Amino acid sequence: MKKDKAPGKNPNPSNTVFNRNSIYSKIFHNNPTPHTLAKKSDRTLVDVNEAWEKFTGYKKEEVLGHTVEDLELICLSEANSIRAFLADQEILKSYELEVIKKNGDTTYGLATFQLVNLGGDDFVQSSILDISALKHTENQLQVSKNFSESVLDSMHEGLIVLNADLTCIRVNKAYLDMTGYKESEIVGTKQPFPHWPPEHYKTFRKYVSLGLQGVFNKSQLTFKKANGDRFEAAVANAKITNSQEETIGYVSTFVDISERLKFQNELKDKSERALNRKNVILKLVNLIGEDFDKVLKNIISSAAQALEVNRVSIWKFNEDETQIHCLSAYHLQGDEFKNSEELETKNYPNYFKKLYDKKIVKINDCANSEFDNDYKNSYLDKFGITSMLDVFVKGLKKPFGVLCFEHLDDIREWTPEEEQFATTVAGLVSLAIENAERTKIQKKLIETNKKLSVANTDLNHLRKELEQQNVYLREQINLVFNYEEMVYSSAAFSQVLTDVEKVAETDATVLLLGESGTGKELIARAIHNISGRSSKPLIKVNCAAIPKELIESELFGHKKGSFTGALNDKEGKFKLADGGTLFLDEIGELPLDMQPKLLRAIQEHEIEPIGSSKVQKVNLRIVAATNRNLDKEVKKKKFREDLYFRLNVFPINIPPLRQRPEDIPILIEHFVDKFCKKYNKKIKYIPQDTRHALYNYDWPGNVRELENLVERAVILTNTETLFVPGFKSSEKPTPIHSATLSLDDVQRMHIVQTLEQCNWKIDGSQGAAQILDIKPSTLRDRMKKLGIKKP
């Protein structure tokens, strides 16, 4: 706040200048525009009108006799400029001033200064138009302009603006960074613009033509950089209109999606490689049981092709493990087998110590590795091996040897997926070895049986011992994969889990379809556990188990006193699952009048508890399950179509147990192990005909029925042979674990399943022999050997 000024010597000198009743006086004092009158000689104020008092905050008696410099109304430099101008001119119009009011506030005025002669004396009359509001608006417009420019230049997307005649008038910083062009190279140009590749002119012109017709689609186009490089971009256009809805220009934004496309292609390639390797494993499994040397050659050639490794070889220890020699080596480029090398194990202690300890030896860059210089100099360098991945192969009773993946020429970084594949292949080699050994033992057993037919007791004893020695461990052959809490080996259930892996990493809604007892809840838990929401809760709601009157409260919660019995606030299942996953089991049983509320909650991601007027946002993933055919329920008007479409984003059909019979043996083994531990039983065998009866049973109750039956059987069994109530038994029990992993059983199930798919057609196109990739005569021989007959 300025200090008040003392009044001048003549507090009202205007009385001596003009008569108060004169026309000039009336115009001066009644004018709504602020006016002042000052002596030209000493610049002291002699009169101000009422409008000026309101404008500056000063009273007339406070300023008369003072100069504007004394009052500090305007700065000294401006006062001197005005005085200098009036020395030569009689009038100064539209001079913008910054005026400081009495209270210290700054305002703005547009002033006019004019020399006048009154009573023979020269005066300066001024009038000021208040333009503070206009100045404020001007400042806001400048700020808005600066803000808009900053926003455009801070955008991640590239931006180009065209006027109505399609001339470029603006590009942002992101455009310049992505294309490498200078602003001067693009602004002012017309189509074809510099970032249009000549080979894509036709595509760009068509896109622009559609835009001129009012069709603004998001598209993927190829852009050209200043250095000539091309990159893929996602493009979106829009038109710019004025207040009369007239088109005055167009704006186009784009994003470089080259890295995204590269990642998508890499992901696709990775998925295809994984599927190919899986198919290779399944193909090799079907070969087990044929000639041992032939199986080994098929294994190493298929593994080399699947991993695209120059050479894959299988090595075998001698009896005392002092030497190791190459049984067979497959060369990918030459498509040939060579086997001539032999190494002394004592010469390479570091290599073999790591092989025995770690079961795998991986070297990405052999040339720069100091792992075992002797091994490197005498073997790796000799054959030009740049990268190696060696896996220990277990024999029946002792180490068999090594499976070697050897890459030539360039350096190769072995991935965890490739290591897993190599380990699985080594497990198949072990399985082939064990099967060959078992075949030899079985032949010896037959010969012994002929010689000792009268000694049945000793023969049975020997047979049991041999069978116990040949129990196959599922962990060694990698034929049965445990996923979460699930046990399976079938391709059908494997496809279910493949779908689970694909959808788990997204937030898409999943609808699980399947009969009761097929494991829908386990699948829902698996989706949650491998998703990004696994650290948050999985909340389950059984829609069939909640009374109709309470289901809204159960899902969305309620406030205290909202209905009879609501004694306290309660969080609903939607809120409890916030950040995690909500599993809606038996969704087909949800009352029809409740379905619109559930649909809104899923669509809008918000809920409104009973008795509350406040909407709560929730972030969760929906997994629903039902054993009903919702499509038919919709047609019967028993289930809302819009809710069905909202839930059916990613349906997963879980096959019943009768459609995946190959899972039955390992499920029996799993449940026997589980309940033997629970009830402290030791059950090792299962009658052969009982096992076949279980395999051929329809299982209307699916896995749940099988589990309950096995639990009851374990409770009732008091010997080492499993007694299953309601199923036949014989005097020829087989080990439970052996039954699960028997080679003949695996082949029998696979062949029967393939024949059923082909309606028991063997020859010709789409016949079982073609699908199994074997000759029809070979298939018939194997069917006869395995006792497979058309029903």
Measure the end-to-end span. Answer: 109 Å
E-strand count: 30
- Return Rg in Å: 45 Å
Task: Please count the helical segments.
Answer: 30
Description of the structure:
It is a single chain. The chain is of the alpha+beta class and 791 residues long. Helices cover 42% and strands 21% of the residues. It has 30 helices and 30 strands. β25 and β26 (616-617) form a beta hairpin. Residues 6-11 and 465-484 have low confidence and may be disordered.
Q: Helices and strands in order, then pairings?
A:
Blueprint: H1 23-30, E1 35-39, E2 45-48, H2 50-56, H3 60-63, H4 68-71, H5 76-88, E3 91-100, E4 106-118, E5 121-130, H6 132-154, E6 158-163, E7 168-171, H7 173-179, H8 183-186, H9 201-212, E8 219-224, E9 230-241, E10 247-256, H10 258-287, H11 292-307, E11 311-317, E12 323-331, E13 336-338, E14 342-344, H12 349-358, E15 360-363, H13 373-380, E16 385-394, E17 399-408, H14 416-451, H15 456-469, H16 474-477, E18 481-483, E19 486-488, H17 491-504, E20 510-513, H18 520-529, E21 538-542, H19 551-556, E22 557-558, E23 570-571, H20 573-576, E24 581-585, H21 595-604, E25 606-607, E26 616-617, E27 621-626, H22 630-635, H23 641-647, E28 650-653, H24 664-679, E29 685-687, H25 688-696, H26 702-716, E30 733-735, H27 736-741, H28 743-757, H29 768-772, H30 776-786
Helix pairs in contact: 10-11, 10-14, 11-14, 14-15, 17-18, 24-26
